[in-house]
Structures are given as structure tokens and as C-alpha cells.
Amino acid sequence: MESMRGNGKQLVVIGGGAAGFFCAVNAARQNPSLNVTLLEKTSKLLSKVKISGGGRCNVTHHCFDISEMIRKYPRGANFLKKAFHQFFTTDTIRWFEERGVALKAEADGRMFPVTDSSGTIIDCLMNEVNPHHVEIIMNAEVRSIRKESATFLVELAHQRMVTSDIVCIACGGYNKSATFEWIRELGHKIEAPVPSLFTFNIPGHPITHLMGVTVPDTRVKIVGSKLAERGPVLITHWGLSGPAVLRLSAWGARELAVCSWQFAIVINWLPDFNENSLKERFQHLRIESASQKIINKNAVGLPQRLWQFLGEQSGVLENMRWADLPIKVQNQFIRNLVNYELVIKGKTTFKEEFVTAGGVLLNEIDVNTMQSKIVPGLYFAGEVMNVDGITGGFNFQHAWTSGWISAKAIAQSF
Ligand SMILES: Cc1cc2nc3c(=O)[nH]c(=O)nc-3n(C[C@H](O)[C@H](O)[C@H](O)COP(=O)(O)OP(=O)(O)OC[C@H]3O[C@@H](n4cnc5c(N)ncnc54)[C@H](O)[C@@H]3O)c2cc1C
After folding, report:
1. Is-above-0.90 flag for pTM?
2. What is the structure's pLDDT at 299?
3. DSSP readout, 347-380?
4. Are 183 and 167 in contact (CB under 8 A)?
5. Where are the beta strands (DSSP E) in 170-294?
6. What are phi and psi of 114, to 5 degrees?
7. Spatial separation of the C-alpha atoms in residues 76 and 70, rounded to whole Å
8. Long-range contacts of 350-353 (CB under 8 A, 24+ apart)
């Protein structure tokens, strides 16, 4: 049994990520009599903070309206609606600012440290460790937790054991259901994990020859479901990416896992048009541009390479002029522009920001404290809970919010 310091109450935080750090340093600061120990499985701390946002760390999102913010979380929105009343984006910005870290917003709302370096966030969190006497133990993988009367027995790999009065589990998301077993053994139920935030594969499809083309405004719909997203799409050498696709992958994470990521989508490359309104536009083009070659110059604001590709796929010949466009070819071209069907065969995890959907069921956690409703003295923070957001800083905001709420509740519980 490893001995812990001091005579005060012990808090063991499991996981050295954003949520675990936020819980540990805030609890220690708010209640100096607490002895806080953070256990990290690996030999690295804050590893996701380091790589996130391409090494810049997308700390939060420039959104100051809770009802708007919660629309960015496919799972956990109602839970967060309450949690954000305690600690929101404004509090995150202030927390870092008070410690000398200014954040800036980009045009799409993502917020980064002004230094554009995740190292700034890591240093800021690490600087809180010593003044508040948080002990960090690395290479300390928790294998099981038991509670005997009021004491938690936390069993680590290599037959090590620590005891604690309070435990906060902030171990992040796991991609295999079996890895959650030690949490299930405490009596908690787990929503099975599935990947979220992935891109769509269309192996061998000719459209992949347009890799690198970005279409700024599209509407992508998953056939046979209500799932649809409007926004930019990026054509890659293996398929489709971009915000509209990533958002769809997040909202559809469960449905798409059920069909093993084999499904059909329909893309409207011109979402301000439907078949009828585009037909009208084409009638005008036949007159206005009668003598011009159709393929040469796109007439509807699409990237030229995509316009040419969709035209060719519809049967528009290289030298065909607007006045000579056969009705059958025109109809096919219009369909391809506003109802382009693609069959998706598999997914690729989005390297920039990957999360798992699933985790500890939220109805087993008290949103006001992040305390387990099943095991008193047990708390949760971060991605281990069944909460996940789309890309843009929403996942980190959840880690800060739940880390802070658990810290406050723990600090006040003695
Ligand atoms: C490449 C990448 C980029 C990302 N970019 C962004 C972004 O820009 N913006 C955004 O909002 N989100 C981003 N995310 C998501 C975000 O990083 C996570 O949602 C967030 O880190 C979750 O924090 P957490 O503390 O709950 O879990 P984690 O950061 O996963 O930390 C959990 C820690 O617990 C440890 N652990 C696990 N099991 C045990 C155990 N049994 N015993 C002891 N320790 C254990 C792990 O080793 C890990 O260090 C990104 C994710 C990835 C993978």
C-alpha cells in the first residue's frame, strides 16, 4: 500500500488529461487541506492538449450563449445545459487570462492561446501543480477500485495500491467497451463506445481525382435518415472531409456504426438551389450564354474542376454550347449538381480532433457536482462521460467545465 501525504482528506484523480488536471489543481487550490494525487497511466501528461488543434490547442469556442453552445454536442446537450451555468466559455477564458494566458478567436469561432502554441496551455496547467502541492504519479494505471466503508482502495498495475477518501475518474474515452470494465465494476453503466468525428471513404471513386478541391457551401444528407448538414466539403484522395462531413459523422456516430460505415449520401453542391430552381437558371443560361461552351466556365459559382467533372459525368461534351445542351443531358447535369449520390464504404478517423461517443451514463451522475449517484465520494470529469461535441473546442470546454464542477464540489465537501 502506497502511503499518501499529510493528515487532510485524500483526493485521487485518475487521468492526467485536461479534465483530470483541471479537477486536481482547482480542488487543491480551493481547499488547501486536501491532499491531491493525480495518477496517470502513461509517462506523458496532457498529451492530447499538446497535439490538439494542430499543436495550437483549440481551448474553447467563441460562443457566449448556452442554448447555442449545447447544439454542438450530439451527446450530452441537456446535461451540459445545466453544467454550463456553473462554468462556461467565459469562465474558461477568464481562468486562463488570470494566469497570464490570453486567448484569441479565429473567424470560425475556435479559440487558441495568442501564442498559437499548446505548450502555453500545458505550462499554465503545470504551473498550478507545485504551488497547490498536487502530487503526480506517472506510469500508474488504475486497474480496479473498491470501496470499503468510507475508503476507496485504488488498485494499480504491478500490485500497487493507494487509498483515498474521494476519487475523480477523468480517464478520457476508451474505444473498446471492455476497457471500461473497472468502472462497470463500481456499478456504473456504460454506453458502448463508437468513433465520432471521421471522414467518409469512397475508395476508387473518380471524384477522388479532384483531391484538394474545397466546396465552401454544400448540403450533405445521409439517405434513409434525417441526418443532414450544410457547410464546406473537402474532396480528398480517399473520400470526403470538411466541416459538413465531420459534423454528420458526429451526429450520425451511432447510426453509422450500426451499418458498419456503409451508407449512401446525397450532396447538393448548390444548396441555394433545388432541381426546379436550377432548371430555371439553366433556361436563362441557354439564352444568356447560348454560344458559350458549357464546360469552359462554370456558371453557378462552383470550383471549376468540380463543375467540369459533374458536367462530364452527366454527358456534357467538351465543345458543347449552352444552346445545344440536350434536355436529357441537362436533366442529368442538374441532378448531379443538386442530388449527387455517393456510396460510402468505410471511414477514416479525423486526425485533427478525434473523440469517442459513449461512456458513463449521464443519468448516473449529478450534474451539479459531477458526483456519482451510485457510489458516494466518486466523481467524474471529461470524456469518460457520455458527452461529446463536434470539432471546434467543444470537447475541451466540456473537460474544463466538468473538471471545474467536480473540483468545486470536492473542495466544498469537507
Ligand atoms: C488528435 C486530437 C486532437 C484534438 N483536438 C481537439 C481540439 O482542438 N479541441 C477540442 O475541444 N478537442 C480536441 N480533441 C478532443 C480532446 O482532446 C478530448 O476531448 C479531451 O482531451 C478529453 O480530455 P480528458 O481529460 O477527458 O481525457 P484525455 O485527454 O484522454 O486524458 C485522459 C488521461 O487518462 C489516462 N488514463 C486512461 N486510463 C487510465 C487508467 N486506467 N489509469 C490512469 N490513467 C488513465 C490517459 O492516459 C490520459 O492521459 C482532440 C483529440 C485528439 C485525439
Report:
1. yes
2. 84
3. EEE-SSS-EEEEEE-GGGEETTTTEESSSTTEEE
4. no
5. 190-196, 198-201, 214-222, 228-235, 239-241, 262-268
6. -60, -20
7. 8
8. 350/197, 350/198, 350/199, 350/241, 350/246, 350/249, 350/391, 352/53, 352/54, 352/391, 353/52, 353/53, 353/58, 353/197, 353/391, 353/395
* Range 191-211 average pLDDT: 96
Q: Is the CB of 95 under 6 A from ligand 1?
A: no
Among protein residues, the one with the nearest Cα to ligand 1's atom 41 is: 142
Strand 35-39 and strand 10-14: the pairing is parallel
Helix, strand, coil abundance in the chain, percent, nearest 5:
35, 25, 40
How does pLDDT run across 215-234, given as a tens digit for each residue? 999 999 999 999 999 999 99
pLDDT band at 5; cut points 50, 70, 90: low
Cα-to-centroid distance, 270 and ligand 1 (Å) = 37
Q: What's the gap between Cα 248 and its chain centre?
A: 12
Distance from C-alpha of 366 to C-alpha of 398, rounded to nearest angstrom: 15
C-alpha cell at 87: 462554468
**Rounded to the nearest whole angstrom, what is the distance from the C-alpha of residue 285 to the centroid of ligand 1?**
53
Cα(43) to centroid of ligand 1, in Å?
14
CA distances (Å), 164 to each of 13, 68, 168, 261, in order?
10, 39, 10, 43
Where do the H-state alpha helices sit in 271-319? 275-288, 304-314
pLDDT tens-digit series, residues 287-302: 999 999 999 878 899 9
Percentage of the chain lying above the pLDDT 90 cut: 93
The Cα–Cα gap between 212 and 118 comes to 27
- Residues 31-87: tens digit of each pLDDT: 999 999 999 999 999 999 999 988 999 999 999 999 999 999 999 999 999 999 999
